Amino acid sequence: MAAQCCCRQAPGAEAAPVRPPPEPPPALDVASASSAQLFRLRHLQLGLELRPEARELAGCLVLELCALRPAPRALVLDAHPALRLHSAAFRRAPAAAAETPCAFAFSAPGPGPAPPPPLPAFPEAPGSEPACCPLAFRVDPFTDYGSSLTVTLPPELQAHQPFQVILRYTSTDAPAIWWLDPELTYGCAKPFVFTQGHSVCNRSFFPCFDTPAVKCTYSAVVKVLMSATRSAYMEEEGVFHFHMEHPVPAYLVALVAGDLKPADIGPRSRVWAEPCLLPTATSKLSGAVEQWLSAAERLYGPYMWGRYDIVFLPPSFPIVAMENPCLTFIISSILESDEFLVIDVIHEVAHSWFGNAVTNATWEEMWLSEGLATYAQRRITTETYGAAFTCLETAFRLDALHRQMKLLGEDSPVSKLQVKLEPGVNPSHLMNLFTYEKGYCFVYYLSQLCGDPQRFDDFLRAYVEKYKFTSVVAQDLLDSFLSFFPELKEQSVDCRAGLEFERWLNATGPPLAEPDLSQGSSLTRPVEALFQLWTAEPLDQAAASASAIDISKWRTFQTALFLDRLLDGSPLPQEVVMSLSKCYSSLLDSMNAEIRIRWLQIVVRNDYYPDLHRVRRFLESQMSRMYTIPLYEDLCTGALKSFALEVFYQTQGRLHPNLRRAIQQILSQGLGSSTEPASEPSTELGKAEADTDSDAQALLLGDEAPSSAISLRDVNVSA
After folding, report:
1. pLDDT, tens digit, 9 for 90 and up, residues 650-684
2. Distance separating alpha carbons of residues 393 and 554, to the nearest angstrom
3. Of the candidates 352, 400, 188, 216, which has an alpha carbon nearest to the alpha carbon of residue 275?
4. What is the Cβ-side half-sphere exposure of residue 355, based on CA atoms within 13 angstroms?
5. Which has the closest alpha carbon to 226: 269, 179, 268, 265?
């Protein structure tokens, strides 16, 4: 962020008329209403009180700032209608206070560094701080995902003079803060709360510069008004302290509190989970996380965040995983799918270098975090599990990319790496597989240009060292690449016809080049062969040959890839679906949820009524978005909407309100114009009558069902 120049009058010159200060320049990030480019944010302190019974968070925020030009009129922060500001105050920066010197401090009683001092949200010692003066403030609309908070500053403020702004507020019904009743947890005994800030939700958690271009250190003191509840890094019953030594963007500030127990799984890692899940989480990850961290360090340099802990969240967690520094959030549902668990955790480990240490400066270039993290993830898996497994997982993801391409069209603007974010559009809408997989393909292409993966690892290590704890744009990466490999710059590799760097960034459609996955052929060739058998003629001979292949010994990604290919070909001839069911249905029903949901989508997309009872049982047992939304979308696309309505009636009480509204939104579309089933419905369908549409509409729209559907059918990515 560049400082603004303020020209002085030359000695002896005639005084010019006094003019008001110029208006702030346009925001660097169109998703932020803030005046972040006019200030340097040095540190933020949070004093929080969690009130689960009222589903309310009370906060006191202290922003430690300095202006980059004299006498700024106001400080503008990102906020949200869910956030109610009670007061704003100004004070000169107090004398430098002692900060906790550790990168990640679990402040336990006894010897050692003192925790950060209590924030003004809690009782203060009289006269312990410089005097505060109240500030005027106002809140204005900005977009449907946030507001702007303008705080008037004292007129005499000098450039680069440290000062503090203190804001007291409460937040209710905030998109960033997820309150769970006990029945929405695995233990069903105690309430639970977590936050999810990506991409622009944390402005409803605390007022901030909610842009990835701004980073700062932070500290927090949290009171939890829960009986017998523990949280990661809790100092005493009901209170915990946290201090982040390294600067991070606002979206990476997060908290979680609930019935959580810890278990060490390595020298610098532990898992936190509900007691009933802790043995499973520990057994699956013990020793593995340290192995992945060590592999990443050999590739990209020292791990800089101190600890790498993982907390497993209830199934209401809206995404698969989130790379919050020091404490990765991950959905517990993934525990039953070992290979997906491995890939998702390694991806979040990779974010410690790419995304957390070096961050995309705008949401328009998310690939700088996700594409690089995906490349690093695959280098780690290659080092740990071999090239064949990495190629299999890559083939599976690239298949999903091309599936999404068919859904969106090759001319879709969101298929660009350097996508244009229009004002008012939520950056979360830009999260798609292009960000991950097209970004990965570009990074892989760069690695091939230098001819040696190890040399490219050396470049990425130097890139991280140069830009760590800052935010970058694509040109920073590409300039660094060409500087590191001057021989490639001399060859003008950035301008090769058809593969120009600019075209990689700004062309719509699929990647300009894809990686060579031949090292995974021992795992992908059997999948191709089995799929070809099921699409061959005559069917009886194909089925006989296919039944001789034992897929129970396959890797999860092999089976998932096979089922995805069948999904791509759906609707299939009914006799093929019948034979598939006879051959695989019982076996697949005993496998993990990633396999089961794919088979059940085949059942639904082909209106195969004999296996609908399996769909019902699956939806009755699932409370996560990733395993419910795709099935409800498929059910409502064809002849099975009445079945979907019936299952929803019976299960909605076990779903988080946000997920319930999302499913209501899907079910409410086209209500009253039901499609006749292609064949006589089974008793599974007979329970839902067509003439209940009016009652269903009241149920579905009585809350606050959103107006348009979110298509997540073929998208399941971690952040």
Report:
1. 999 999 999 999 999 999 985 544 433 333 333 33
2. 13
3. 188
4. 29
5. 179
DSSP three-state, residue 35: coil
CA distance 49 to 346: 33
Tens-place pLDDT, residues 97-154: 433 332 222 222 233 333 433 444 443 433 445 688 999 999 999 999 999 999 999 9
Averaged pLDDT for residues 698-709: 38
What is the rounded CA–CA span in Å between residue 377 and residue 347? 5
Residues 6+ apart with CB under 8 A from 395: 517, 520, 524, 561
User: Closest by alpha carbon to 120, among 111, 129, 112, 109?
Assistant: 129
CA–CA distance, 233 with 236 (Å, rounded to integer) = 9
Q: How far apart are CA 154 and CA 668, in angstroms?
A: 52
Tokens found for residue 301: 């340099």
| Distance (Å, whole) CA 249 – CA 470 | 9
**Cα(83)–Cα(59) distance, rounded to whole angstroms?**
10
**Overall size of the chain counted in residues:** 719
- Residue 656 vs residues 183, 624, 635, 659: alpha-carbon distances, Å: 10, 9, 20, 5
**CA atoms within 13 Å, Cβ hemisphere of 440:** 25
Q: Which of 289, 119, 259 is nearest to 185 (CA)?
A: 259
348 noted as active-site residue: yes
Do 363 and 249 contact (CB within 8 A), yes or no?
A: no
One-letter amino acid identity for 477?
L
Cα 339 from Cα 341, distance rounded (Å): 5
Helix (H) / strand (E) containing 534: helix 521-534
Question: Half-sphere exposure of 676 toward its Cβ, with a 13 Å CA cutoff?
Answer: 3
The residue from 348, 364, 646, 684 that is catalytic is 348
Backbone angles phi, psi at 458, to 5 degrees: -60, -40
pLDDT in tens, 159-178: 999 999 999 999 999 999 99
* Statement: residue 689 has pLDDT above 50: no
At 245, which helix (H) or strand (E)? strand 239-248
